[in-house]
Amino acid sequence: MIKAVIVEDSRLARNELKELLKEHQDITLVGEAENVDDGLELIQKEQPELLFLDINMPEKDGFELLEMLDEVPITVFTTAFDEYAIKSFEYNALDYLLKPISEERFAGAIDKVKKQLEQNPEVSDREKLTEQSQIFIKDGESCWLVKIGDISHFEIVGNYTRVFFRGERPLLYKSLNQIEEKLPEASFFRVNRQQIVNTNYIGNVVPWFNGKLKLTMQNGEEIEVSRRQSYLFKDKMSF
């Protein structure tokens, strides 16, 4: 069963979605919310695999909800305003449904959800972040919904953390310690006080001064591993 939640300020629109969901018995609606704050609480409590999210809501919009989440479920945007369509795909939403939603269009979105879950079964495991988990990043007017496995490394910048992925370098308003607690230990390693790297993106490792190591990432960036962490890194990587 796929757990789903609806965050939508219109009661009529929520009822419409619930009627459409009745034709899909393998999706269980575990809750609904009419605003962002209630939606955040609901998602944190239920940990759904699927989120039906309205964009244009009073006080806070759907994009702001994504920004509040540590991990973002598979997201299908629902809205009456097609001007948001292009922006929603910048957020890597799985699909975009324009109200009123037809049964055929809705069924197509559900098929996409099921295919993504079949391809990435880890998405269904909400206990901790995995390579397939998604986080939301907003830096100025730019926004991304990024898979953990696509991130090469993290770096402290004042009160922010810079996130490196696919040539992008936006700032995330979370501490490196907060991020480290949620990352999959199998692929991420704290190399020093300032940086965490995804070991899958390391291109080369060489001995450095005073027992330290120097990493060259696949994008060419060089990162120094502290002496203490170098011992741990060698053990982790079986050097």
UniProtKB/TrEMBL annotation:
GO terms for molecular function: DNA binding; phosphorelay response regulator activity. Gene3D superfamilies: 3.40.50.2300, LytTr DNA-binding domain. CDD domains: REC_LytTR_AlgR-like. Keywords: Phosphoprotein. The keyword Phosphoprotein applies. Residues 135-239 form the HTH LytTR-type domain. The modification 4-aspartylphosphate is found at D54. Residues 3-114 form the Response regulatory domain. This is Two component transcriptional regulator, LytTR family. It comes from Croceitalea dokdonensis DOKDO 023. The lineage of its organism: Bacteria, Pseudomonadati, Bacteroidota, Flavobacteriia, Flavobacteriales.
